[in-house]
From TrEMBL:
This is Guanine deaminase. Coiled coil: none annotated. One of its GO terms (cellular component) is cytosol. It comes from Methylobacterium radiodurans. It holds the Pfam family Amidohydro_1. Its cofactor is Zn(2+).
Length: 442
């Protein structure tokens, strides 16, 4: 049994559907008690300390915000070697930077080394669950899940499927992609906290036969995820129209193959119609909002407040989308989500922002009964933000008049790396721990 004590902030409702203030759970002096990977007691310290047996001393985090572990609903681990590459839009960027980087994952050792670094960087940013794209190589998936299993993080990942419009070294076939995915599903899906995501890269890189094979996998195995890209850039959307002239829309290409439903996560979804939002609402499919990526590639501005319209709310999570995205930090990503909303004339307040990075992400992954909140019975994943991480931040915090302002300035001014990250009731990253801040050295 372990416990943490400090200022705790979590959500009990969806602030896009209810008054944001009413959704907030805040304990200025809170206590989270954890055992067996789950939260066993939670509340104000004075009222909850009776749940602490003699001898269990809580880890204290003064000058901090203790939040649920953050949820990244769209990220590519093989792309950390080319993040921040200059001068291209989506399709040129894929050709020039992304595909060559992914070719290098034919080397298993390279995949293992990268997975090790990626997972540590993600944990250092307070992210405890992510939906992760590997490469076309099955061993890239083994490398990632092996590392995730070591830390006991709840992760979704899958082998990228692509059978056209990419370098030949990155192509599989519909049949081979199906077979290799199935072997990975048998090896990893539901093993500990690992979950498999069938991952057709995007419609331009997949023939209809390959999309159909992805649909067959989803029908044949329970609880799988489906992750892909949707309507990210205008040139891509026009290309999909040419490749699939019989389909009513880009989303319809996926729907036709049986890919649109619960646990489907579509990255970007910038250039979509009202009807697409309605389809996602009706089917339980989710969208991943990737603001740093969309700004960096110049892809466009996601219509967050339209997607979450209370009349037909869509499940929306936040995605870093590294390497098109420019940070693995979801806190930083929220700062950019605020600016994207501002460019559209909307204001993303701190409570709604926190929801996107925690409970909203959990809802997007249909894991809202297990992660994304701090509550008794939930999996004990925590992220601890240092509200005095720099002299400027500490100074700014002294002028915050309430908890929402304190949280908001973390989004706009906070550092990438957090103070601590807990996974399944264990501290896996402690920034101050020397010489190695990680529970399992790289
Ligand atoms: N569309 C197809 N592949 C990719 C990718 O790797 N990153 C992004 N941002 N968009 C894509
Ligand atoms: Zn992506």
């Amino acid at each position: 049994m372990r416990a943490v004590r400090g200022r705790v902030l979590t959500l009990k409702g969806n602030p896009f559907l209810a008054e944001p203030g009413s959704c907030l759970v805040h304990h200025e002096d809170g206590l989270v008690v954890m055992q067996g990977g789950r939260v066993t007691a939670f509340g104000g310290y004075e009222l909850t300390k009776a749940a602490l047996p003699a001898g269990v001393v809580p880890t204290e985090y003064p000058d901090a915000l203790i939040l649920p572990g953050l949820v990244d609903t769209h990220v590519h681990y093989p792309q950390i070697q080319m993040v921040g590459a200059f001068g291209a839009q989506l399709l040129g960027w894929l050709e020039r930077y992304t595909f060559p980087a992914e070719v290098s994952f034919a080397d298993r050792r390279h995949a293992e080394d990268t997975a090790r670094l990626f997972l540590r960087e993600v944990l250092a940013c307070g992210t405890t669950t992510a939906a992760v794209y590997c490469t076309v190589h099955p061993h890239s998936v083994d490398a990632f899940f092996a590392e995730s299993e070591r830390f006991n993080t709840r992760m979704v990942a899958g082998k990228v499927l692509m059978d056209r419009n990419a370098p030949s070294a990155l192509l599989d076939t519909a049949e081979r992609g199906y077979r290799e995915s199935e072997a990975l599903i048998r090896r990893w899906h539901g093993r500990g906290r690992q979950l498999y995501g069938v991952t057709p890269r995007f419609a331009p890189a997949c023939t209809e036969a390959q999309l159909d094979a992805a649909g067959a996998l989803l029908r044949e195995h329970d609880g799988l995820y489906l992750q892909t890209h949707l309507s990210e850039s205008p040139a891509e959307v026009a290309w999909v129209r040419d490749l699939f002239p019989a389909r009513a829309s880009y989303l319809d290409v996926y729907a036709h193959a049986g890919l649109v439903g619960p646990r489907a996560v579509f990255g970007h979804a910038i250039h979509v119609a009202e009807e697409d939002f309605c389809t996602c609402h009706r089917t339980g499919a989710a969208l991943s909002h990737c603001p740093t990526s969309n700004l960096f590639l110049g892809s466009g501005l996601f219509r967050l407040f339209d997607a979450l319209d209370p009349r037909r709310p869509v499940r929306v999570g936040l995605g870093t989308d590294v390497g098109a995205g420019t940070t693995l930090s979801l806190v930083r990503t929220l700062g950019e989500a605020y600016k994207v909303a501002a460019l559209r004339g909307d204001k993303l307040d701190a409570v709604r922002a926190l929801w996107l990075a925690t409970a909203g992400g959990a809802e997007a992954l249909h894991l809202e009964d297990r992660i994304g909140r701090i509550a008794v019975g939930y999996e004990a994943d925590l992220c601890v933000l240092d509200t005095a991480a720099s002299p400027l931040l500490a100074h700014r915090a002294r002028y915050c008049t309430d908890i929402e302002e304190l949280l908001f300035v973390q989004m706009t001014l906070g550092p990438e790396r957090v103070q601590a990250t807990w996974v399944a009731g264990e501290p896996v990253y402690e920034a101050a721990r020397t010489p190695d801040p990680y529970r399992y050295p790289g």
